[in-house]
Amino acid sequence: MPRLxxxxxxxxxxxxxxxxxxxxxxIGSNNNNTVSIVDVPTNRVVYIFNLNNGASVDTSDVSSDxxxxxxxxxxxxAVDTSNAGIAGEVEIGNAGSNGIAVSxxxxxxxxxxxxxxxxxxxxxSDFTVTDTIPMGPGPDNLAFTPDGxxxxxxxxxxxxxxxIDTASVTVSVVIPVPGGSLVRNVRVAPNGQFAYASxxxxxxxxxxxxxxxxxxxxxxxxxxPRNISFTPDGAFAYVPNGTSNDVxxxxxxxxxxxxxxxxxxxxxxxxxxxxxxxxxYVTAIFSDDVAxxxxSDNLVIDTISGGKLDGxxxxxRFIVNAPAPARDIPTLGEWGIVGMIAVMGIAALLVLRKRLxxxxxxx
Length: 363
Known about the structure:
Elements (H helix, E strand, L loop, with lengths): L1 H17 L5 E6 L4 E6 L4 E7 L4 E8 L5 E6 L1 E6 L4 E7 L7 E4 L5 E6 L4 E6 L4 E7 L4 E6 L5 E6 L4 E6 L4 E7 L6 E6 L5 E6 L4 E6 L4 E7 L8 E2 L5 E6 L4 E6 L4 E7 L5 E6 L5 E6 L4 E6 L4 E7 L9 E2 L2 E2 L11 H27 L5
Parallel strand pairs: 4-28
Antiparallel strand pairs: 1-2, 1-29, 2-3, 4-5, 5-6, 6-7, 8-9, 9-10, 10-11, 12-13, 13-14, 14-15, 16-17, 17-18, 18-19, 20-21, 21-22, 22-23, 24-25, 25-26, 26-27
Helix pairs in contact: 1-2
């Protein structure tokens, strides 16, 4: 019986732990320069931390191993997702940053600035600026190809997408976006075959063939499309539309809009998808909340708000495939598990006590 009790206790504790060894969403608030970590299984804020002066939550990206999440700003900052501690930082001056992207191998950060019209290259091993290259007037968000040989940079003034050859760190191609106005965001599909660029001013998403670096299609979406996120299998892309307050769902096999999801938010803009592809998290600037969309039926199943979730301006990826580094008190469901463990433990001890008593001499 003692062994049974111990085994039951261990399995129960493991059940509690495994239920939370899940991804976490790092939701940045520009109003107070804090990051609220949301436990994905429960959609609860379980940890809040501040970035240092000069850092910014305007834009973020996650390393491929989810070990680090990087933030832009005058001070570019790396946060260790195991403990939410600052793992590295480097000042890039008053240039600030519009977009940030980490290379697939995790060795290099690219940071754009529309103030100085430059792209800053940072070595992540020691957080040293290794290069700064000139761009067009208004570089914004950017993304690497999966093999790391190219990076695509949206330009909101030239209404074009710049292709960076990462070996030489030079602009190799400039791709004009037909009909584009305020080309602000770009993402590369998981298979690397094409890139999507959103034009906030003209309500379109432009499809670029990454083999030829040419425009192959144009998709009309909602009003003021912002960021873009692909499902892990690359089958769909989700695009928040800031003015129409909805999310366009694009099927990538033929680049068509197959669904439009009202989120009930005011100016949705940031978007990221959980590693298992089951949920889409959409941040909003003015309603200060995060909508959670279930991808199986494209329904909003939860809205996260309160606390430090105000002025949400996430550009880029913000979901890490690692559990939150700290948690608060258990949920009601967790209390139920704790209660079950306690009851089973008491029952086991009572049975054990009875058996010991009956086996005592003189019985």
